[in-house]
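User: Please predict the structure of the protein below. I'd like the answer in structure-token form so I can feed it into my own downstream comparison script.

Assistant: Understood. Taking the following sequence of 253 residues as input:
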Amino acid sequence: MTKIGILYIGIGRYACFWPEFYNSCETNLVPEAEKHYYVFTDQTTITPSDHVEVFHQDDMGWPCNSLLRFKMFCRIKDRLSANDYLFFFNANAQIVTPVTAQDILPVDEDFSALCIETDPEKMSHERRPESAACVPLGSTKYYYSGALNGGKVQPYLTLLESCNTIVDTDLRNGIMPIWHDESVINKFLSDKRVKVMTREMGKPANWKEPRNAKIILRRKEDVLGRSWLRHYKGREHTNTWLRKILRTIGLVN
């Protein structure tokens, strides 16, 4: 039986998305596969079971709860290697109709990722050459969302380690990638063999198209609260704040 490991971050208020995600995943994500969940949270509302492992993760605030996902996941890479495939889903993902193995699992490729832009003029890769996440204009055909990506287990473990290195390099140099973890993912995947998934596999819940979407991304404002979300993502990120984060993750003394 195919084993799929699912990586999930539910820190702070984001933990409230877990029940709907979990139930939809159990019902609709490659139903014939064996699924194992690896959940990082600071909340006690997500409880472990035979196929749900819960790992404590302190709330580092935005964007670090997302940017440092690769470091979180590398902590348990020995556990992750027991799977055939690994996939990361945004906390607000919900699988609304059956997703088959053919829909999501790479076959000839090493990775799968949700593509959200193919027009070079609209792609928002990190372009600063001093950033380790830099993707030069015209060097790739796709821009991927950070909301859904995965791959065969060994290539994906390499992705986690490589992306962690990119993040560490930029932070040491005082650089915050423009779209955080999404910029880093795009850098890594820019020259890799990727099964390209369309918006059918990740449609914002308030969009009308595509009508046949199998996975939706629930509106965070509706669940978390617009004012809370604005405050959470609107805090000023000073050099003092960045140095505190670097110290927390061991990049500086």
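That's the full token string. The beta strands are 3-9, 34-41, 52-56, 85-89, 93-95, 111-117, 143-152, 194-197, 203-204, 215-217.
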